[in-house]
Design brief:
Belongs to the peptidase U32 family. By secondary structure, this protein is α/β, with parallel strands linked by helices. The chain folds into three domains: 254 residues, TIM Barrel (Alpha-Beta Barrel); 32 residues, no CATH class; 88 residues, Elongation Factor Tu (Ef-tu), domain 3 (Beta Barrel). 26% of the residues lie in helices and 23% in strands. The protein contains eleven helices and 22 strands. It starts with 8 loop residues before the first strand and ends in a 9-residue tail after the last strand. The relative contact order is 0.12.
């Protein structure tokens, strides 16, 4: 399988420094992050000036780029904060971010004035769905466009051919919004927290209960599209499946998409590690002339909990054409190695219930998953007492002599009793 363009950049979410480290370890080419405000994940911890400076040093020493999110839609009262943020970035001089992600024309205008040397990437929130819109942003000075998630592959191909001198980026994995390119008012209506200012409370993922409801579309008589029965528990029936386009990476590379983006600044560091590992391995495989979609989907299905589908990517109505994959979620991330504490001893942050009588699987880059038998490792508390079970929130000592152990790595266990019900 030969390609005539560079490998797409793997762009990963970094909601805080821990997730940033996970993205670097598991193969991201670039990360996107934000400050405490003015980005569409204001609920993420974000990066203050000192944390951002540290991240830039580490990223650039690893040949990884950092893109800074200013993609909220500010009101007039917010413009002072926009200017302050841009001026703080400007004060960083040459050690600045590698790009700004914006959606609002006003923020774009201010960014060009205050940071004229920093490339601007147009956020998916701008809902760019045609070549004229892409050319509009290019004429203003944008260097990259993140395409609207509502585009099918034919739309993407036509748009890419019409603007060959503009970098295109697209989401390939993660949460899909119920609204058009994320422009949702549910959160503002229910909780006075605007999704368009980064404060979405995700009411589409809340659970609701209807006394009785069955929805049938007029032209499809006899086919129930959604149904909630009177005696059921609360149901997240507004909740979309997660997007998953790993199977279509050959098409994406062939059509010269410059960057593939993983959603998830509000998701866990373990999620960042897993998705980066899968997509990094898939891209590397393609570069070596092989492709193993069943392996990638199997790995995602074992570890994630939300069902996945191909969204709007395939032609036709997604309700009938989307390729769907259910996730078992049985391989649970139970620990995150923080630092080495001595020979073959590691300080570990416990993420989920960890049964020391069960084998352990190391989550290594490249989809390598060596198994450590229960007899080959041990857990201790801070007093040196052996533990049969460790619980979320604890920090424990892991005794393990496997040569692949290193800080930042995750470990997991098979927990079939935790299998998520299919939605």
């Amino acid at each position: 399988m030969a390609f005539h363009s560079p490998c797409p950049e793997l762009l990963a979410p970094a909601g805080n420094p821990v997730k940033f480290q996970a993205a670097l370890l598991y193969g991201a080419d670039a990360v996107y992050l934000g400050g405490p405000s003015l980005n569409l994940r204001a609920g993420a911890d974000g990066f203050g000036r000192e944390a951002l400076s540290d991240a830039l040093v580490q990223a650039h020493s690893s040949n990884v780029k950092i893109y800074y999110c200013l993609n909220a839609f500010p009101q007039e009262k917010d413009l002072g904060l926009v200017r302050t943020c841009l001026e703080l970035l400007s004060d960083m001089g040459d050690a600045c971010v590698d790009g700004l992600i914006v959606a609002d024309p006003g923020v774009f205008f201010l960014a060009r004035k205050i940071l004229p040397h920093v490339p601007i990437h147009v956020s998916t929130q701008a809902n760019t769905g045609n070549s004229a819109a892409a050319a509009f942003w290019r004429e203003l000075g944008a260097t990259r466009i993140n395409l609207a998630r509502e585009l099918a592959l034919g739309d993407i191909r036509s748009l890419a051919r019409a603007v060959p001198d503009l970098e295109l980026e697209m989401f390939v994995h993660g949460a899909m919004c119920l609204a058009l390119s994320g422009r949702c008012s549910l959160s503002a209506y229910l909780n006075a927290r605007s999704a368009n200012k980064g404060s979405c409370t995700q009411p589409c993922r809340f659970k609701y209960r209807a006394k009785a409801m069955a929805v049938e579309e007029q032209l499809r008589p006899g086919e129930i599209l959604w149904e909630v029965l009177e005696d059921e528990d609360y149901t997240a029936f507004f909740s979309p499946r997660d997007l998953c386009l790993v199977k279509y990476l050959p098409w994406i590379w062939k059509n010269q998409i410059r960057a593939v983006k993983i959603e998830g600044r509000m998701r866990s560091a373990a999620y960042v590690a897993l998705t980066c590992d899968v997509y990094r391995t898939a891209l590397d495989d393609l570069g070596m002339g092989r492709f193993r979609p069943s392996l990638y989907l199997h790995e995602l299905g074992l570890a994630l909990h939300r069902p996945m589908d191909s969204g709007f990517f395939l032609p036709g109505a997604p309700s009938t054409t989307a390729r769907r994959w259910d996730c078992a979620g049985r391989m649970t991330m139970v620990g995150h190695l923080i630092r080495q504490e001595g020979q073959e001893k590691w300080m570990v942050q416990v993420l989920d219930r960890w049964d020391a009588a069960k084998p352990l699987e190391l989550v290594l880059p490249g989809l390598r998953r060596p198994v450590v038998e229960a007899s080959e490792y041990g857990l201790e508390n801070e007093r040196g007492e052996k533990l049969a079970v460790a619980h979320p929130g604890q920090r424990v000592l892991l005794s393990c002599g496997h040569p692949s152990c290193r800080p930042g790595m995750f470990v997991r266990q098979d927990q079939p009793e935790r299998i998520s019900p299919t939605r």
